[in-house]
């Protein structure tokens, strides 16, 4: 039996993770989370880039000609205030793939210029809903109650159409082995790439290429941040990290979704956007380092920033390393600490084995 490897996540790192996850970073409004992330990685980088829409890139060895990206996305799903009734109830529109079915009875924060306003998703009591004829939660019947009695009173709190709304749920550790919270998709990826940067600095690694540690915005509404920053960096290689579904909880079909589980290692995706030689390189490194991994067939698109990088700049050799996640797009997203550590190890060791100018083209 092989010995368990020592943890690569420190107590200080985990404290940052908790603070980072508890901070709201909704799509289009990622600034506060990006400032927090940049402050954390600053000791480990040589310089940084912040683009027009808020994508942040920490750069190591910026003068190198050969450029490698490790990337995650920073934004989380949320809602927009859409309509305020004369009685002071608030109806919403999605900002990303927010799940309306989990909304009733949830507490939320409404982000305003006057500060955070607390509210709740109200829902009729079970006694009043009509039994067999009761309606399920839908976007046209879920609503917020912020304790006001009129639209004027709501507006006096600073709430207006366009204010963003996020769930008020905090990070926790489940049974000492699983991280739980909202927005693990994909600030957990941001944590992973930050930890890779920390390990490179700690171990005094001198990379033979430029490394661009990229925390992109606006993935949840169409990979927009990745599209913009890929054109700016113009990398040779992009290693993307995101989340995928754990399919071993109730009500999920493995025939449709594949067989993936938290605690069994990073997930390596196959698909047209994934460059086969780069993928093989990643698999070889995982095997060499004894890092367990799982496989996923992604079909036409990965649905992640991998697609944006792969098809940019006349084609960038790209691959996707995913973390299995339970209950995606809920407030109790759950992943394995061991998986997170193994994703960090895999990316770190891929960088150690990557050569400047390494050619991943299909035909050489």
Structure write-up:
The chain has nine helices and 17 strands. The chain is an alpha+beta fold and 364 residues long. The chain has two domains: 238 residues, Zn peptidases (Aminopeptidase, 3-Layer(aba) Sandwich), CATH 3.40.630.10; 90 residues, Peptidase M42, domain 2 (Elongation Factor Tu (Ef-tu), domain 3, Beta Barrel). It has an eight-stranded mixed β-sheet, with helices on both faces. Strands 4-5-8-7-6-9 form a six-stranded antiparallel β-barrel. Strands 10-11-17 form a three-stranded antiparallel β-sheet. Helix 1 runs antiparallel to helix 4, helix 4 packs across helix 9 and helix 7 packs across helix 9. The protein is globular. It starts with 10 loop residues before the first helix and ends in an 11-residue tail after the last helix. The relative contact order is 0.18.
Summarize this entry quickly.
The protein has 9 helices and 17 strands.
How would you summarize the topology of this molecule?
Layout: H1 11-22, H2 31-41, E1 47-50, E2 56-60, E3 67-73, E4 78-84, E5 89-95, E6 107-112, E7 115-122, E8 143-145, H3 151-156, E9 164-167, E10 172-174, E11 178-181, H4 184-202, E12 210-216, H5 224-233, E13 237-245, H6 254-257, E14 267-270, H7 276-289, E15 294-297, H8 305-310, E16 317-325, E17 333-336, H9 337-353
Parallel strand pairs: 3-12, 3-13, 13-16, 14-15
Antiparallel strand pairs: 1-2, 2-12, 4-5, 4-9, 5-8, 6-7, 6-9, 7-8, 10-11, 11-17, 14-16
Helix pairs in contact: 1-4, 4-9, 7-9
């Amino acid at each position: 039996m092989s010995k368990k490897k020592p943890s690569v996540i420190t107590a200080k790192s985990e404290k940052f993770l908790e603070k980072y996850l508890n901070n709201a970073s909704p799509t289009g409004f990622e600034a506060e989370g990006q400032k927090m992330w940049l402050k954390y990685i600053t000791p480990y980088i040589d310089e940084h880039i912040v683009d027009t829409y808020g994508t942040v890139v920490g750069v190591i060895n910026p003068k190198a000609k050969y450029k490698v990206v490790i990337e995650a996305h920073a934004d989380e799903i949320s809602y927009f205030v859409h309509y305020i009734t004369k009685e002071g109830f608030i109806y919403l529109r999605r900002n990303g793939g927010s799940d309306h079915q989990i909304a009733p009875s949830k507490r939320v924060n409404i982000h305003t210029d006057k500060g955070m306003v607390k509210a709740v998703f109200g829902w009729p009591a079970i006694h009043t809903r009509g039994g067999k004829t009761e309606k399920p939660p839908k976007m046209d019947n879920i609503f917020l109650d912020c304790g006001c009695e009129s639209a004027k009173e709501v507006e006096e709190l600073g709430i207006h159409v366009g204010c963003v709304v996020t769930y008020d749920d905090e990070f926790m550790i489940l049974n000492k082995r699983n991280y739980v919270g909202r927005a693990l998709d994909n600030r957990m990826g941001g944590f992973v790439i930050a930890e890779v940067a920390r390990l490179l600095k700690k171990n005094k690694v001198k990379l033979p290429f430029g490394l661009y540690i990229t925390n992109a915005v606006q993935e949840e509404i169409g990979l927009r941040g990745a599209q913009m920053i890929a054109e700016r960096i113009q990398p040779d290689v992009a290693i993307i990290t995101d989340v995928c579904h754990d399919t071993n909880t109730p009500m999920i079909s493995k025939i449709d979704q594949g067989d993936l589980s938290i605690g069994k290692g990073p997930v390596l995706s196959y698909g047209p956007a994934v460059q086969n030689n780069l993928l093989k390189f990643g698999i070889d490194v995982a095997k060499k380092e004894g890092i367990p991994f799982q496989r996923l067939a992604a079909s036409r698109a990965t649905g992640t920033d991998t697609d944006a990088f792969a098809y940019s700049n006349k084609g960038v050799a790209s691959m996707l390393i995913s973390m299995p996640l339970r209950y995606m797009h809920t407030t109790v997203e759950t992943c394995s600490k061991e998986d997170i550590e193994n994703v960090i190890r895999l990316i770190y060791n891929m960088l150690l084995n990557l050569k400047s100018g390494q050619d991943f083209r299909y035909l050489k």
